[in-house]
Write a structure and sequence with these properties.
The chain is of the alpha+beta class. Helices cover 41% and strands 26% of the residues. The protein contains seven helices and eight strands; from the N terminus they run αββαββααββαββαα. The strands form two sheets. The chain has a four-stranded antiparallel beta sheet with strand order 1-2-4-3. The chain has a four-stranded antiparallel beta sheet with strand order 5-6-8-7. α1 packs parallel to α4.
């Protein structure tokens, strides 16, 4: 079982990123668990998380439109606290880059993007689809991702209302996706296969 003691692989980094955005930590003093709920169309992502964190965990129906996976471990919950994943984190979440190897930063961002980002066709231009990326998150995560894109890709997102940025243009979007995936087929590839394929 992967207890989030340290993050050493792209798969672990991705799981941390998705946990930062979509994970829910319960620490009542009697019950310790991490749960992640996703839309049913994203069940394969829960399967990926299951195989990375604990292959014995169960994925169950959460609602009419969602599945959930739960990991019961006091040590896991306590370790996640070191990465800033705590109860009621929705307005204070951040990416703990100082605790993650630099070569894995992109995969944490990919996990965050799959939790709170989207890619869509903006409009048709010259007979071809025109793509854009939007990210909604906490002020700190928006600023952190924006800084990485600026430093690594020379792409400078404009953050609006402290919680959202949009990047448009096929070349910029493709550049970001190639940076995030870096040859790895992990995450919600269905979000991006319209431009990657």
């Amino acid at each position: 079982m992967f207890l989030f003691e340290t993050v050493k692989t792209p798969e672990q980094a991705y799981c941390l990123g998705l946990t930062i955005t979509d994970g829910r930590v319960i620490n009542s003093g009697r019950s310790y668990r991490l749960e992640i709920a996703l839309q049913k169309r994203d069940k394969e992502v829960l399967e990926f998380i299951k195989q990375t964190v604990n292959p014995n965990a169960k994925i169950v129906e959460h609602s009419k439109n969602a599945f959930v996976i739960r990991f019961y471990s006091k040590q896991l919950v306590q370790n996640l606290e070191k990465f800033g994943v705590v109860p009621n984190k929705s307005e204070i979440a951040y990416i703990p880059f100082d605790k993650i190897p630099h070569n894995l930063w992109r995969f944490v961002i990919l996990g965050c993007f799959d939790g709170d980002g989207s890619i869509y066709k903006s409009w048709e231009k010259a007979g071809h689809p025109y793509f854009a990326i939007t990210y909604y998150g906490t002020k700190q995560i928006c600023q952190q991702i924006s800084n990485i894109f600026a430093n690594e890709l020379n792409i400078h997102p404009k953050i609006k209302k402290d919680i959202r940025f949009t990047i448009s243009g096929n070349l910029q979007v493709l550049k970001i996706l190639e940076f995030l995936y870096n040859g790895h087929c992990i995450g919600m590839i269905r979000k991006d296969n319209t431009i990657l394929c």
